Each structure stands twice: as structure tokens, then as C-alpha cells.
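Pair request: fold both.
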Amino acid sequence: MQIPTLITERLWLKPLVTEDALQIQKLYPHWEIVRYMVASVPWPYPDNGAENYVNNVALPDMAKGIAWFWTIRRREAPDDLMGLICLYDVEDNNRGFWLAPEYQRQGYMREASTVVTDYWFNTLNKPLLRAPKAALNSRSQLISASSGMRLIRTGKQEYVSGLLDSELWEITRDEWNARQVN
């Protein structure tokens, strides 16, 4: 299935391509972004980290049909990448995202998350979306809670910043679609 460009009021979500690695490499390696990422993310972030991830993880998983990655861009600046959002068809980890610090706290991720979650449920026809996160990641919690997700499990997980309390949030397709009608 061809991954479409998704458009919102303020954003252009463009499917990830190899050429995006250069901008990702400039934006991603900031402690504010990576501290709550899974421990498999190398830190300090290597000079070829984005190229390696895009070409050896993200794009191959997209080709296998188990992942959908979009770059997040403002409609008025479509050449400038702000962050990344993805969907994964793996147990207990269906959505992830990051946004460069200068674009945070402006509602962009909530906007991107809404259109991508709708794609998961109403284009891919998935019955359930689950999103893990560090319990300290209050901004990610807020995005999940405001979209109708609920906390279903807690535990511990290794993140770039160490062993932390972890949470798993979920919402069903029926719950999502009921919220979209109102």
C-alpha cells in the first residue's frame, strides 16, 4: 500500500524518504527529544544515526508493510522538517513521535497525532492502538489523554535516560470513532 501524504489545518505529513535523514540528523539529537526514547536509541547520537535509522530500520519496515512513517512539516514551510510520527503494527507499540524543541507546545503534535491515529483506524482498519511511554513524559501523556486514550498498564522500561517507570495507553477503533462524531 502506498503511504499517502496527510494534510491537516496547519501541517503536511509527508511519507519518509531517504533524503529526510539529513534534516533528521540536525533536529533529532537533543536530550529533550531522546531522553524518553527506548534504550536502543544510541546516545550520544552518532553522526550517521539518522541515515542508519531511516535506511536500515524505518524504510525497510515500511516496505514490509509493518510501519508507516511521516515527516511533520508546516504547510507554510513544506521543505522544513519539524519532527517525525510513525505507526507500527507490533504488539503494544503502535504509535511514536518526536518534535524538535522549537516546535513543541504549539499543538502541532496533537494535530499530527489525530490525523495519523485516524489513518490507523479508518484506513488501515486496525481495531486497537496502543502507545507506550515513559511515565515522566507528561506532554506525551497529555496527547494520549486528550485523544481519549486510557492508561492500561504500568511497569519499568529502559530508556535513553535509564530505567524508568513506563506506561501503556490504548484506545479502540470504536472509542476513537465515537469521539470523532461528537
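--- second member of the pair ---
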Amino acid sequence: MNLLVIYTYPNHRSLNYDFLQKVLEGSRENPAISAVQVLDLYEEEFDPVLVFHEQKRRRDMHADPALEKYRAQIQWADKIVFVYPIWWGRPPAMLLGYIDKMFASGFAYRDNGKLLPEGLLKGKSAVYVSTMKGPALYPLYWLNNAHKVLMRKALLQYVGIRPVKFFEFGSMESPRGRHEQKLQRVYRYFKTVAK
């Protein structure tokens, strides 16, 4: 299994970075995982801003040569892992910009005249490892699970990626946030996941 880990946090001395390290540590110890690539969007200085004009049209984004490296990573991956904080009930703008550019028509899906398009990324699965300041149940009760609906249904199922697993950790700025227990949970998952 090939693992693509997309890390979206501007600080390597952070709890999010610790979660990234546990993903990598567990993956290295898992015989089912043959290769891992990490895409650190901030370190990469990925440009999340969409620009369209007469020479650069949205309908051609799936073939933009500037994004070929990132398309190749997605095609290569069997499992895509996203590690990021939840800010204002949603992923960081950097990650959303990556999604806007990469999950384009002609690459991630194709319109087929039906209610839902044909997902072109079938056969892949995904894992979300996200952290937030608020309590773990905040997105469910206050936001009607908007984060999971956005990431699972509006994005990945739309392009054919399933199953989707969530580690959505709350109270992460609290000294009672059980950080080590949550880090170990992520480590154990990646040490044993088979597909």
C-alpha cells in the first residue's frame, strides 16, 4: 500500500506535527505499507489561490502543468492521509485551496449527465487526523457534523474515494486533553491498518 500524507500546519513544533510523526512511525512498522510520501503544504509553499482568466481557464485545471507533481502523488497513493487542525469548523484555507486545485473535473471526477458525476479516484481510501481547541462533540452538536459531511460526502465520496476514517480530536489545547493517549491511538492504527 502506498500512503500519501498531506500535512497542513505552519509549525513543526506543534501537536499537529506530533500526530504527523505518529502516522509515519506507525506506517514504518506496518508491513502492509510499502511506501510513504509526505506533502507538507506550508513547507512546500503550495499556492492555494485559484486564478482564472482568458489564458488560464477552470475547465483546463486538470491539465495544469504546475500541478502535475501533485496529481502524480494522488494517482500513486492507495491511501491519502490528511493531518490538520480544524479552524472555525473547517480545515485551514491552505488545505481547502489544495482541494480546490487538485480535485478538479477531468482528474478527480467526470460529468456523465447523471445526478452525480463519475468519481475517477475509485480504489483509494482516506484518513483524516484533525485537532481542535473545542470539545470533541462540538462539531456534531453545534455544527451538524459539517466538517465530516464536507470532507466525506462533498469531497471524497464525490470523487470515488472510500472508505473514509476520521480521527477528530477535541480539547487539544487543554492540559487534560489526553494528548499522549490520542497520539498512541493514531500510531496503533497506522501500525496495523491493512487497506
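Observation on the second member. The mean pLDDT is 90.
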